[in-house]
Amino acid sequence: MKRRTFLTGLAGIVPASALMYYLSPEEEITVSHTSNPKLPYLKKPSDWKGTPLRSDGTFQNLHHPFSSSMYEVLKWKLGGNPQEEEKKKDTKRLSVEKINGLPPDGKDQLIWLGHASYLIRIGGVTLLTDPVWLDNWVLKRYSELPIDPQQLRDVNYILISHDHRDHCDEATLKLLGTILPNAKVLTGLSMTSLLQPWLPKNQIQEAGWFQSYDLKESLRITFVPTRHWSRRGLLDTNQRLWGGFFIESDDKSFYFMSDSGYGEHFQLISDTMGSPDFAMMGVGTFKPEWFMHPVHVSPMDAAKAFREMGGKHFVPMHFGTFDLSDELLLEPLDWLKANPSEVNHSLIEPIVGRNLLV
After folding, report:
1. Residue range 314-321: mean pLDDT, rounded
2. What is the rounded CA–CA span in Å between residue 126 and residue 107?
3. Rg of the Cα trace of the chain?
4. Into how many domains does the chain fold?
5. Across all residues in the chain, what is the average pLDDT?
6. Contacts 24+ apart (CB under 8 A), 18-22
7. Cα separation of 3 and 134, whole Å?
8. Is residue 177 part of a domain?
9. For 249, which of 8, 123, 133, 339 could close a Cys bridge (C-beta 3.0–4.6 Å)?
10. Using an 8 Å Cβ cutoff, are 241 and 188 in contact?
């Protein structure tokens, strides 16, 4: 494998790439605020100015600016994994139920397809989140995809949270572009130039944080902040916006966290949007914690954020499908099962392919 190809793949997954993000000491950076002028703010914090945008053209987290370090990457990769032998012997895998046909129209559903990918039907509208379904040289699935993509029809929206390769896969999106040319793509600012060549027939809407998308259906989807970062290649750090989604119908609300480190933004989202009925919280890719915590919450911190948000049902994700970090594949779920009080006994055990709505 060519060195450049390897680094490009690594750049889209781990929280600090093999190249540092350099800034000249003489260059003074200022921060302004931006948004999509075509989209509304239906709910926003009282003092909201917009999505932070640095004068070098890159986006910035609300409370914890991202920085990358070559030293920390090497310290992690060369330092060894204390669970390495345990991982070699580990055979525990996610439970998967095959989907042999979609339920009748009108029945709400929340079906986990693995990692951060869901099939959601709410109020008669069908959504897909972060579809990464095909193995490639960077990612290998450890849980089977429960559905044949060719079964998918009448999907209204494809939600892409950010540009990292375990959330935004070129091959999967090209496939969906041929199967679902009428599905609209909802994503963050500056993502269109990346996505449109893969989805030439699909309309794309970009939103800043706390902006709601222009939808025809009686559904509200709002792009909300996370503590994370973006990079697809070697020289495009934070040039595309990252975030999560808050989805509301007449009688249900879903919070899709995407990737995030712990921070004040969880409380800000809840204060602004309300407490979610179903919180899909990332819990994996968290070890070593000294390295991962700025961009991926541990199951412990995910539980803390869930309690702060006042969520009703805790739905863990972002574990078990891809091996991206030092912990065992199902270690986050094992911790949650062993500590039910940490999520107020509201854990919905994630079975891939099963409707998780209760």
Report:
1. 98
2. 11
3. 19
4. 1
5. 91
6. 18/70, 18/73, 19/70, 19/234, 19/235, 20/68, 20/69, 20/70, 21/67, 21/68, 21/237, 21/238
7. 23
8. yes
9. 123
10. yes
pLDDT of residue 5: 40
| CA distance linking residue 53 with residue 65, whole number of Å | 11
Structure tokens at 130: 């972060």
Q: Which domain holds residue 189?
A: 3-20+69-82+103-343
**Segment (H or E) for 269:** helix 265-273
Q: What is the pLDDT of residues 250-309, one digit of tens each?
A: 999 999 999 999 999 999 999 999 999 999 999 999 999 999 999 999 999 999 999 999
In whole angstroms, what is the distance from residue 239 CA to residue 163 CA?
A: 10
Q: Rounded distance, CA 335 to CA 7, Å?
A: 32
Q: Is residue 221 part of a domain?
A: yes
Angle, helix 331-338 to helix 299-309, in steps of 10 degrees: 50
Alpha-helical regions (H) of 41-133:
70-79, 84-89
Tell me the residue length of the chain. Answer: 358
Write the DSSP string, 160-193. ---S-TTT--HHHHHHHHHH-TTPEEEEETT-HH
Residues whose CB is less than 8 angstroms from the CB of residue 25 and which lie 6 or more positions away in sequence, other chains included: none
Q: How far apart are CA 128 and CA 104, in angstroms?
A: 17
Return the residue matching tokens 């541990």: 298
In contact, 326 and 293? CB cutoff 8 Å: no
CA angle 49, 232, 33 (to 5 degrees): 10
**pLDDT for the residue numbered 165:** 95
Specify whether the CB–CB gap between 197 and 169 falls below 8 A: no
For residue 283, what is the DSSP state?
-
Return the structure tokens found at 265: 């933004």
**Overall average pLDDT of the 73-101 stretch:** 90
Check: CB of residue 128 under 8 Å from CB of residue 102: no
We report the CATH number of the domain holding residue 239 as 3.60.15.10
Structure token digits, residue 239: 């040039």
pLDDT 10s digits, 278-290: 999 999 999 999 9
Residue 337: both structure tokens together? 């099962």
| Any domain includes 48 | no
**In this structure, how many other beta carbons lie within 10 angstroms of the beta carbon of residue 138?**
17
Say if 25 falls within a structural domain. Answer: no
The reported pLDDT for the residue numbered 105 is: 65
* Bridge partner list, 205: 186
